[in-house]
Amino acid sequence: PIMAKSSTQKVITLSVTEAELYAATSCAQDMLFVYRLMRTLDMKVQLPMILECDNKGTIDLSRNWSVGGRTRHVDVRLYMLRDLNEDKIIQMKWVKGEQNSADLGTKNLDHASHAKHTKTLCGDNDENF
Q1: What is the distance between the alpha carbons of residues 109 and 103, in angstroms, rounded to a whole number?
Q2: What is the pTM of this model?
Q3: Three-state SS for 100?
Q4: Pairing state between β 49-53 and 90-94
Q5: Mean pLDDT of the region 17-45
Q6: Nearest to 32 by CA among 114, 57, 40, 52
Q7: How many CB atoms lie within 10 A of CB 18?
């Protein structure tokens, strides 16, 4: 399933990595909701669910328990991603920025990039473009 949500974050972050970590945690919470809903309906869910991200620092924080000088301020509740990663429920996967279709809802894109991401999310039907 595809779920889309765009809103301003309710916190002030000190880095792009921290902002992406907040967004990834929010996305993981939504993924868990859909996972539990599907399980309640006796539907099979393939694990781990893939969460794509274009920020390597965020992915590193989701996999590594060591905290350095630049990350010790990160809120403890964001470590939920680490637990989900260790439990093999959610797997963070890096994608190149230009291949990240989520940019469609969060960035100003040129026409070619907009058309490419729209085709990816809505299907490859040329009649719509």
Answers
A1: 8
A2: 0.75
A3: coil
A4: parallel
A5: 92
A6: 40
A7: 23
Question: What average pLDDT score do residues 115-128 get?
Answer: 70
18 membership: H or E segment, kind and range: helix 16-40
73 closest CA partner among 10, 18, 9: 18
CA-based nearest residue to 27, from 80, 64, 95: 80
Beta-carbon contacts of 64 under 8 Å, excluding residues fewer than 6 positions away, are 82
Contact call for residues 45 and 8 (beta carbons, < 8 A): no
Q: For 65-69, 100-104, 106-110, which range has the lowest pLDDT when averaged over its residues?
A: 65-69
HEC letters along 43-97: CCCCCCEEEEECCHHHHHHHHCCCCCCCCCCCCHHHHHHHHHHHCCCEEEEECCH
Two tokens, residue 18: 């921290």
Site of tokens 């595809």: 2
